[in-house]
Specification:
InterPro entries: EGF, Haem_peroxidase_animal, Haem_peroxidase_sf, Haem_peroxidase_sf_animal, Oxylipin_biosynth_metab. By secondary structure, the protein is of the alpha+beta class. It has helices at residues 37-45, 76-90, 135-143, 147-155, 158-165, 168-183, 201-205, 236-243, 258-268, 293-296, 300-306, 328-331, 358-381, 387-415, 441-446, 466-469, 474-490, 507-519, 525-531, 540-544, 548-557, 565-571, 582-597, 615-622, 626-631, 670-673, and strands at 6-10, 13-19, 28-33, 49-54, 58-61, 66-68, 107-110, 116-119, 125-126, 132-133, 317-319, 322-324, 457-459, 462-464. It is globular, with a radius of gyration of 29 Å.
């Protein structure tokens, strides 16, 4: 028996047909059911063909706009053959969940090829498709301002926020709300991965996978985005060249510095470390959070090779009276360097790809110095401690410093808020919160902020092209940490949102990001907007805020609900005078804050002075900042260290890349910049 995907609709209800074709049987079996209108619409969206049977004795194919004028007195065999033929051409085993019928985080389960059910448990909604709000949900949704309204309030009225920032209980209350409201968007424990679009023990327990925020698009869906758009996605290279590649450097209007760009790259690659030998859905960073494996190595063998095993310290070398990382020859750890880099410049650090650019090695050097400095502080207070305890406690302190700097300097800058963010784990001690974290593949994809990079790198009085900058660790020792910090603080980074700002020399990384997203069968940008309680975009112009790129998007994708996550994030219209668009912020902030505050050191069991060697270690964390991190680890006058370019309104005091052409891709070979295993950088 063949299942028919054509649905006969009578004025009084719906008749679903199943032609029974047997050797000696030409009967047409009709099964009459009554279905709600929203279910019929879901079936239509999924590709079902609805046929309305009118008393006037003709059939109308509503979904196709064609009319079949037939004599209703046709014999049953003819009608049966017609419906059977339609069933073969219209759909074979359509999954109704492809149409995303379940709203408001309801879970869709397909029931065969012509039905589904929505699980609305604890969503705050009920009904066929989880669309009817419960009373308390209705009140909450009605009163809650939109994300853009909240963003406007937090980024304006500076005088008001200055008052709030100085009243501790008000500041604490708002910060507690920020942390809980954001982190509750993230499922904990994790729910899906690239191979399991449903709850399973494997998706929970297998740490070698990135988790997934939304399940993959089912393989039996009509289009790559479910039911929307074309049957084939646009060529990744063509897409990137038309919408992502830089024509002219677009500086970030928020005043973001290269100091920020390199911090972002250095910080995130302790937990964004895809195992591309297995596929983009897998990770080598099994700690799934802030564990500083990019400083100490991601396994015990590498950690031991990097350790001095004296006074808790890491190995180092002295160059011109200052501490720098040891070389590969000295510590015998795996690093990625092309053959032309001399042995004396092959520095060895916790992450094998940090020799790529001097900005990464600058931060690696600063954190190496900070670890050894903290060891000296602890040894003075605890002269009886052995090497192991000094090392382990120093690592915990550096984790605390990192989280403090990320929240109060890094996220503070990104947000643009006049409200002053605060790192205080005690704010969550009486809240419903889980101290665990799993890195999501969507978070990894979202964080590909390559538009931050300029066309060239200005250090002291010299400009470095990409060819001169990449894998040139001599820049670190030649200029010194002081001058690198000062120069990177003065140079503007690029704007991320708004499209067409990825430098040509690193375009291939964006292309790979698109290809990897497709391998993992990400849902559309609009699907992720709904997941994070954002209104889906209604048109391409609604997404881009202009007409030209909107027209290109429409030509490539065909439907707004077919736009992919990564390209959508980069072409999305930026917020006013901001580096990002709405989706990037509202989707990225929950991942970030949950990952930071879900760290074990933030739990009631860990967050106490004794964990960090007493009040001295606790104080190092609670007074940490980007500026103090730099000042404690450079010789001589301390340079300004900031994620914001100073005097950003005075263009004479900062460096703006003024190139008006493509970003010099002709003088660099992408296969030399990065091998396949490091395309995330």
């Amino acid at each position: 028996m063949l299942m028919c995907c054509n649905i006969l609709t009578f004025p009084t209800g719906v008749t679903q047909c199943t032609p029974a074709i047997h050797a000696n049987d030409d009967r047409l079996v009709l099964r009459v059911t009554s279905q709600p209108r929203e279910r019929i619409k879901a079936q239509q969206r999924a590709g079902f063909r609805h046929l309305t049977l009118h008393p006037q004795s003709f059939l109308t194919a509503e979904g196709e706009g064609e009319t079949l004028n037939e004599d209703w007195s046709m014999n049953r065999l003819t009608l049966g053959l017609l419906l059977w033929a339609l069933s073969l051409t219209v759909c074979q085993g359509v999954n109704l969940c492809c149409s995303e019928p379940c709203q408001n985080r309801g879970v869709c389960t397909a029931l065969g090829s012509n039905d589904y059910e929505c699980d609305c448990t604890r969503t705050g909604y009920y009904g066929e498709n989880c669309t009817t709000p419960e009373f308390l949900t209705w009140i909450k949704v009605s009163l809650k301002p939109s994300p853009n309204t909240i963003h406007y309030l937090l980024t304006h009225f500076k005088g008001f926020w200055n008052i709030i920032n100085n009243i501790s209980f008000l500041r604490d209350g708002i910060m507690r709300y920020v942390l809980t409201s954001r982190s509750h968007f993230i499922d904990s424990p994790p729910t899906f991965n690239a191979d399991y679009g449903y709850k399973s023990w494997e998706a929970y327990s297998n740490l070698s996978y990135y988790t997934r925020t939304l399940p993959p698009v089912a393989e039996d869906c009509p289009t790559p985005m479910g039911i929307a758009g074309k049957k084939e996605l646009p060529d990744a290279k063509v897409l990137a060249e038309k919408l992502l590649m830089r024509r002219q450097f677009i500086p970030d209007p928020q005043g973001t510095s290269l100091m920020f760009a390199f911090f972002a790259q250095h910080f995130t690659h302790q937990f964004f470390k895809s195992d591309l030998k297995r596929g983009p859905a897998f990770t080598q960073a099994l700690g799934h959070g802030v564990d500083l494996s990019h400083i100490y190595g991601d396994n015990l063998e590498k950690q031991h090779k990097l350790r001095l095993f004296k006074d808790g310290k890491l190995k180092y070398q002295i160059i011109d009276g200052e501490i720098y990382p040891p070389t590969m020859k000295d510590v015998d750890v795996q690093m990625h360097y092309p053959p032309h880099v001399p042995e004396s410049h092959r520095f060895a650090v916790g992450h094998e790809a940090f020799g790529l650019v001097p900005g990464l090695m600058m931060y690696a050097t600063i954190w190496l110095r900070e670890h050894n400095r903290v060891c000296d502080v602890l040894k003075e207070v605890h002269p009886d401690w052995d090497d192991e305890r000094l090392f382990q406690t120093s690592r915990l302190i550096l984790i605390g410093e990192t989280i403090k700097i990320v929240i109060e300097d890094y996220v503070q800058h990104l947000s643009g808020y006049n409200f002053k963010l605060k790192f205080d784990p005690e704010l969550l001690f009486n809240q419903r919160f889980q101290y665990q974290n799993r890195i999501s593949s969507e978070f990894n994809t979202l964080y590909h902020w390559h538009p931050l990079m300029p066309d060239s790198f200005h250090i002291e009085e010299k400009d470095y092209s990409y060819k001169e900058f990449v894998f040139n660790t001599s820049v670190v020792t030649e200029h010194g940490i002081n001058n690198l910090v000062e120069s990177f603080t003065k140079q503007l980074a690029g704007r991320v949102a708004g499209g067409r700002n990825v430098p040509e020399p690193i375009m291939y990384v964006s292309i790979k990001s698109i290809e990897h997203s497709r391998q993992m069968r990400y849902q559309s940008l609009n699907a992720y907007r709904k997941r994070f309680s954002l209104k889906p975009y209604s048109s391409f112009e609604d997404m881009t805020g202009e007409k030209e790129m909107a027209a290109v998007l429409e030509d490539l994708y065909g439907h707004i609900d077919a736009v992919e996550l990564y390209p959508g994030l980069l072409v999305e219209k930026p917020r006013t005078n901001a580096i990002f668009g709405e989706t990037m912020v509202e989707m990225g902030a929950p991942f970030s804050l949950k990952g930071l505050m879900g760290n074990p050191i933030c739990s009631p069991e860990y967050w106490k002075p004794s964990t960090f060697g007493g009040s001295v270690g606790f104080n190092i964390i609670n007074t940490a900042s980007l500026q103090s991190l730099v000042c404690n680890n450079v010789r001589g006058p301390c340079p300004l260290a900031s994620f914001h370019v100073p005097d950003v309104k005075d263009t004479g005091s900062m460096i703006i890349n003024s190139s008006t052409s493509h970003s010099g891709g002709s003088d660099i070979n992408p296969t030399v910049i990065l091998k396949e295993r490091t395309t995330e950088l």
